[in-house]
Design brief:
The protein is elongated. The protein has helices at 2-10, 23-34, 375-421, 440-445, 454-457; strands at residues 43-44, 48-51, 56-62, 69-73, 79-82, 93-98, 102-107, 116-123, 128-137, 142-147, 152-153, 157-167, 172-177, 180-182, 185-191, 194-204, 213-220, 223-231, 234-246, 258-267, 272-277, 286-289, 292-295, 304-311, 316-323, 339-341, 348-350. It is built from five helices and 27 strands. The strands form seven sheets. The chain has a five-stranded mixed sheet, covered by helices on one side. Helix content is 17%, strand content 38%. It starts with a helix and ends in a 5-residue tail after the last helix. It is an alpha+beta fold.
C-alpha cells in the first residue's frame, strides 16, 4: 500500500493510464478544458494546421512553472510523451525540446489519421489539461481540363470541365481566358473525408479566341499557384482585304492603268480565290493573275464594283472595290510665242530667235535623259496647270452665261413695254351706212353728214 501511495504521488507509471478520478476532480478538469486561456491559467498551447506529408509541431508550455510534470496524449488518450520519455511506439513522434516550462514534440509525415485533439496535461494541485487540434490539409491530387470539342468553329458554344480530385477541404475552382476571369458552375462530391470538385464552363468562341489559353486555377490552403490550361483551336472563314497597288495615290483616270491585289486570311487558309464584277460581266481587257487584277487602259465602261471572293472549309467571304474612271487630265497646247515662263523661278525669259523650241513647264532646261527627269516636280507642275486651266474655264463659262441671261432679260422687258403701249381696239367710219347701200359708192355718199358732205367724201381713183 505504501508503495502504491508513493507511485500515485510520483505520478502514473509510464504507459499506464491513471485510475478514474473522483467526481470533483472531473468537474475541475472540465472547467480547465473549457477555460483554455484566462487569468491564472498556467498551461498554454496552440492549434496546428499542417499539409499532408509535412511535419506538425505540438508545444505544451507552462507559465510560472513550479517543476510540475508535463505529458502529451494523442486523440485516443494514449501517452505520447511523459516528460522526456516516449512510451508510445510511434517513431514519427520526436522530442524537440523538454524543460520545466515546455514540452515540444514533432510529428513527421502527417496523414489524415493523425487529425484530432491532442492533450497537454500538467500534474499540479489541482491538475490542468488543455487540448490542441491538428488539422490536416490535403491538396488536389489531379487537376484535369476536359474540353468538349478539340477544334471548334467560330460562333459555336463549347463546354469545358475542370476536375480537382481528392482534396481536403473542398477546393475552389476559377476560370480564366487569357487575363479575363470567367464564371463557371461547380459541383462538390464527398468520398469519405475527401472532396472532388468539378467546374463547368460554357464558352462561345470567335476567331479572336484561336490560340488563346483557357486556364483552370485552384484556390486551396494546402497549395499555391496550382493550375492547368488548354489552348483553344478555332476555325473561321476568310477575312478578305482589297488594296490598290497602282496608282498608289490619286484618281483613277481614263487611259491610265489600274492594279488591284487581294489578300485573304482564315483558318484553314483559303484555297479558292477569284475576282468578279458585281451585276455585270468582267471586261475582256481585264487581266486576272492569281490574287491580282490588272486593267492596262481604263475607260468609262470599266466603272463598277469589283469583288474578290475567298473560301475555305468554314465558309466564304468577300471584299469590294468601287471603280470610277475620271476624265483624262487636260493638257495645254505648246505656246506659239518665244516668251516662256517657268514655275520654279519667277523670271520671264525672252528668246530672240523664232526657231527656238519652247521650254517645258516646271523645268529651267530640258533633261538630257530619263534619269534627269524629276517625277515629283513634273507631277506638281502638271497638277498646278490643271488647276489653273479648270479655274479659267469655269470663269469664262460663268461670264458668258451671265451675259446671255442679262441680254434675254432686257429683250423681254422691251417687248413687254411695246405691247403694253399698242394694246386696244381701232374703229373706222368708212363703212358706216354700208349695210343700207346697194354698192360701195352709195355707202360713201350716205356716210355720216348726209348729202351735205357728199363732196367732201368723194374719192377719186386715177
Amino acid at each position: 500500500m505504501a508503495g502504491r501511495a508513493q507511485r500515485s504521488a510520483a505520478g502514473p507509471a509510464p504507459g499506464i493510464l491513471p485510475p478514474p478520478p473522483p467526481p470533483l476532480l472531473l468537474l475541475l478538469l472540465a472547467a480547465a478544458a473549457v477555460i483554455r486561456t484566462g487569468d491564472g491559467q498556467n498551461l498554454v498551447t496552440e492549434d496546428v494546421t499542417v499539409v499532408e506529408g509535412d511535419v506538425a509541431t505540438i508545444s505544451c508550455r507552462v507559465k510560472n512553472s513550479d517543476d510540475s510534470v508535463i505529458q502529451l496524449l494523442n486523440p485516443n488518450r494514449q501517452t505520447i510523451y511523459f516528460r522526456d520519455f516516449r512510451p508510445l511506439k510511434d517513431s514519427r513522434f520526436q522530442l524537440v525540446n523538454f524543460s520545466n516550462s515546455e514540452l515540444r514534440v514533432s510529428l513527421t509525415n502527417v496523414s489524415i489519421s493523425d487529425e484530432g485533439r491532442y492533450f497537454c496535461q500538467l500534474y499540479t494541485d489541482p491538475p490542468q489539461e488543455i487540448y490542441t487540434t491538428i488539422t490536416v490539409l490535403v491538396p488536389p491530387r489531379n487537376l484535369v481540363i476536359d474540353i468538349q470539342k478539340e477544334v471548334a468553329v467560330e460562333g459555336e458554344e463549347i463546354e469545358l470541365n475542370c476536375t480537382a480530385m481528392a482534396s481536403r477541404p473542398a477546393t475552389t475552382i476559377r476560370w480564366f481566358k487569357g487575363n479575363k476571369e470567367l464564371t463557371g458552375k461547380s459541383e462538390v462530391e464527398q468520398w469519405s473525408d475527401m472532396y472532388t470538385v468539378t467546374s463547368q464552363l460554357l464558352l462561345k468562341v470567335g476567331r479572336e479566341d484561336d490560340g488563346v489559353p483557357v486556364i483552370c486555377l485552384v484556390d486551396h490552403p494546402a497549395v499555391k499557384d496550382l493550375q492547368t490550361q488548354r489552348y483553344l483551336e478555332v476555325m473561321y472563314k476568310p477575312q478578305v482585304r482589297v488594296s490598290q497597288n497602282y496608282p498608289v495615290q490619286g484618281l483613277t483616270r481614263e487611259g491610265e492603268p489600274l492594279e488591284l491585289s487581294c489578300a485573304a486570311f482564315g483558318k484553314p487558309q483559303p484555297t479558292d480565290m477569284r475576282w468578279l464584277r458585281v451585276d455585270d460581266e468582267m471586261p475582256q481587257h481585264v487581266v486576272v493573275s492569281g490574287s491580282n487584277l490588272l486593267i492596262s487602259n481604263l475607260n468609262k465602261t470599266d466603272n463598277g464594283t469589283y469583288r474578290c471572293e475567298a473560301s475555305n472549309a468554314v465558309g466564304k467571304s468577300h471584299a469590294d472595290y468601287m471603280l470610277f474612271v475620271y476624265d483624262p487630265p487636260t493638257t495645254i497646247p505648246p505656246p506659239t510665242t518665244t516668251t516662256t515662263t517657268t514655275t520654279t523661278i519667277p523670271t520671264t525669259i525672252t528668246d530672240t530667235t523664232a526657231t527656238t523650241e519652247p521650254a517645258v513647264h516646271g523645268f529651267t532646261h530640258l533633261p538630257n535623259s530619263a534619269e534627269e527627269l524629276d517625277y515629283g516636280d513634273l507631277s506638281d507642275s502638271r497638277a498646278g496647270e490643271e488647276g489653273a486651266i479648270r479655274s479659267v474655264d469655269h470663269a469664262v463659262v460663268g461670264g458668258v452665261v451671265a451675259v446671255v441671261v442679262f441680254a434675254m432679260l432686257c429683250l423681254l422687258i422691251i417687248l413687254g413695254r411695246y405691247f403694253a403701249r399698242h394694246k386696244g381696239t381701232y374703229f373706222t367710219h368708212e363703212a358706216k351706212g354700208a349695210d343700207d347701200a346697194a354698192d360701195a359708192d352709195t355707202a360713201i355718199i350716205n356716210a355720216e353728214g348726209g348729202q351735205n358732205n357728199s363732196e367732201e367724201k368723194k374719192e377719186y381713183f386715177i
